[in-house]
Amino acid sequence: MARASAYDGIADWYEQEFLGGPTARATDGNPLALGGVLGELLGEGEGAACLEIGCGTGIHATRLRELGWEPVGVDLSGGMLRHARGRLPVARADAARLPVADGSLPAVVAVMVHTDMPGYPAVLREAARVLRPGGVFVHIGVHPCFCGGFADRSDAEAVVIRPGYRDAGWTRESWSDQGLRDKVGAGHLPLPGLLHGFLDAGLTLERIAEHGTPTPIVLALRARKAG
């Protein structure tokens, strides 16, 4: 994951300026707005627990509760968790070493965080480990084909893709100095590397969605652990 200290150093900026303050919600106009993708892929929870990996400041907890889930979160950054504690129960932990028993959860989500985790395939294996048979994992992340240091999104109507998409690895390159990536860096996996991570973890892909126009910003996937 991106160094915890990187997010610790910007946690207040992230909460107040990037998200819009403690009353902000992940709805239209918010940088983490996802349309209906989370509900479409996760479905209703009927009071069951849902673990959010890399929960950050907990901005998605309200939506998870609206869907009927009881969210709990883990994150490596103490600074981010300082803001999250008012939104959901949390624990400080590495996403690749979750403090959760094998086969104990019906649902796990990772929302807009996989680029913070250079070892994301290991995180997918952990998600599979803690899911009960038949449990669901929802990944929502920046679209690997259209977002990254190789993508110039300064003109939303004409995104320019330059060489670099095929190069997996960590970078601080960004088309903007007003967002996150120039501050904390980002990991990139080309689409095959991301999808193989699911397959290698033993997760079966069920649904796929894109979000954002005219060029998608978000790629979302629902996968299930074999029952």
Please specify the SSE layout and strand pairing.
Blueprint: H1 4-8, H2 11-18, H3 37-42, E1 49-53, H4 61-66, E2 70-75, H5 78-84, E3 90-92, E4 105-111, H6 120-130, E5 131-142, E6 151-152, E7 160-161, E8 169-171, H7 181-184, E9 186-188, H8 191-200, E10 203-211, E11 218-225
Parallel strand pairs: 1-2, 1-4, 2-3, 4-5
Antiparallel strand pairs: 5-11, 6-7, 8-9, 10-11
* Structural class computed from helices and strand pairing: alpha/beta
Shape: globular
**In the CATH hierarchy, what is the class?**
Alpha Beta
Spatial arrangement of strands, main beta sheet: 3-2-1-4-5-11-10
Low-confidence stretches: none
CATH superfamily membership: Vaccinia Virus protein VP39
Helix content, binned percent: 25-40%
Which sheet architecture does the biggest sheet show?
Answer: 7 strands, mixed
For the record, the count of structural domains works out to 1
Written description of the protein model:
- With 227 residues, the chain is an alpha/beta fold.
- The protein has a single domain (4-225), classed as 3-Layer(aba) Sandwich (Rossmann fold), CATH 3.40.50.150.
- Helix content is 25%, strand content 26%.
- It contains eight helices and eleven strands.
- It has helices at 4-8, 11-18, 37-42, 61-66, 78-84, 120-130, 181-184, 191-200; strands spanning 49-53, 70-75, 90-92, 105-111, 131-142, 151-152, 160-161, 169-171, 186-188, 203-211, 218-225.
- The strands form three sheets. Strands 3-2-1-4-5-11-10 form a seven-stranded mixed beta sheet, with helices on both faces. It has a two-stranded antiparallel sheet with strand order 6-7. A two-stranded antiparallel ribbon has the order 8-9.
- The two termini are 30 Å apart.
- The model has no long low-confidence stretch (mean pLDDT 90).
